[in-house]
Every structure is written in structure tokens, then in C-alpha cells.
Design a protein that fits this description.
Radius of gyration: 25 Å
Number of strands: 11
Helix content: under 10%
Structural class: mainly beta
Largest sheet: 5 strands, antiparallel
Distance between the termini: 54 Å
Strand order of the largest sheet: 1-2-8-9-11
Low-confidence stretches: 1-6
């Protein structure tokens, strides 16, 4: 069916719906995700001030590694007529993966006047994602029902650059460029009072 349900613009040519066959905009080929929690045993059962302060900490994390989403080539030229996608040139869809050229921009060209573009929907693979989020926290108990939790959280702890947007519109300024990135490392500290 048309990609319009997931971000496309409907059929390019209503007389040839098969020409719009391609990957969905939410297609992600590979996904690896896991989470973990570890009770640090150091001074866990020690009743001294050192055990109260340094024992009973917990370490947790979430790791996500995935390939990029499928993105469709667009078209922005003067007198583009009915076409909303460029033509595929037959060059290999290689990926230099630089900020100035994420994908081989020579893989597409402008269609001839009066013709629809032949490039398939979802034929460009966007940047992937690699994140390691971690937390260190401890509950300090006061009486039977009161707890103060100290929590330190680090998102994207290794500060890995995760590119996000790329310009896939043939004929526009910055065609093929990386246009944005996800957040760098973020550190948060929190105190939570339970009663």
C-alpha cells in the first residue's frame, strides 16, 4: 500500500500504485536492546556508618543498538511536473556516512519533464542508533515507611554521536547532508522522598 500512513505523501502515480512499493518509513532492519540491574555487594550488610553510606548501592543500565530507518528520496527542482521523487540512476546505494554526504547522492537524478520519478520509497537507510544509559542509586531508610532515594543517571554515557536527520531531497540545498543529531551525554542527579 501507499507509504502515506507512515509519513509518505500518497501515490505518485495513481495509475501505477506498484511504483510506490518500498520500505515503510518505520522499517528498522536490526534492533538489539537489553537492560540490567545489579545489586552491588560491597558493604551491603555492614551496619556501621560506612555500610550506611557506601553499601547497598544498585547499578542499572539500558543499551540500545539499531540500524537506521528507511527514508524516501524527495524532489525539489524547478518544473518538476507530477513527479515527487527523483529517478534512480543505477549507481550503487553506498554510504560514505560523512556529515557532508551520508549516502551516495549520485544514485539519484532529476526525471525528464513530464515523467514520474523511478526511485523507490524507503530506498535510503538513515543513521542508526547506539546508546548506553546507566544509573547508580541507593535507598536510605528512615523508620518503617520512609525512604530517601539518591539517584545519579547518565544518558548516552559514552557520548556517542547519533546522527538523526538527513536531507534526502534531490535539488535542495544540502542534499545528502546530515541535518541533526540526537542528544549528547546528559547527567542527572535526583533525590526522591517516599513516605
Amino acid at each position: 500500500f501507499s507509504q502515506s500512513f507512515f509519513g509518505g505523501g500518497g501515490f505518485q502515480n495513481s495509475l501505477n500504485p506498484n511504483g510506490d512499493y518500498g520500505n515503510s518509513a518505520i522499517d528498522v532492519t536490526h534492533v538489539l536492546s537489553f537492560s540490567y540491574i545489579y545489586d552491588i555487594p560491597f558493604l551491603k550488610d555492614n551496619k556501621s556508618w560506612a555500610g550506611t553510606l557506601l553499601g547497598g548501592w544498585k547499578y542499572s543500565g539500558i543499551t540500545a543498538i539499531q540500524s537506521g530507518t528507511s527514508q524516501s528520496p524527495g524532489l525539489s527542482i524547478s518544473n518538476q511536473g507530477l513527479a515527487n521523487r527523483p529517478n534512480a540512476t543505477g549507481q550503487a546505494m553506498s554510504y560514505p556516512k560523512t556529515v557532508a554526504e551520508w549516502f551516495n547522492t549520485g544514485a539519484f537524478t532529476a526525471p525528464a519533464a513530464g515523467y514520474f520519478g523511478t526511485a523507490a520509497n524507503g530506498s535510503i537507510r538513515g543513521p542508526g542508533l547506539v546508546t548506553f544509559d546507566m544509573a547508580l542509586y541507593k535507598d536510605f531508610r528512615f523508620g518503617e515507611h520512609q525512604t530517601i532515594q539518591f539517584r545519579g543517571e547518565l544518558f548516552n554515557i559514552f557520548n556517542h554521536t547519533n546522527f538523526n536527520g538527513i536531507n534526502t531531497t534531490y535539488g535542495s540545498g544540502g542534499y545528502g547532508n546530515v541535518t541533526s543529531a540526537l542528544d549528547p551525554r546528559i547527567v542527572e542527579f535526583a533525590l526522591r522522598y517516599h513516605f
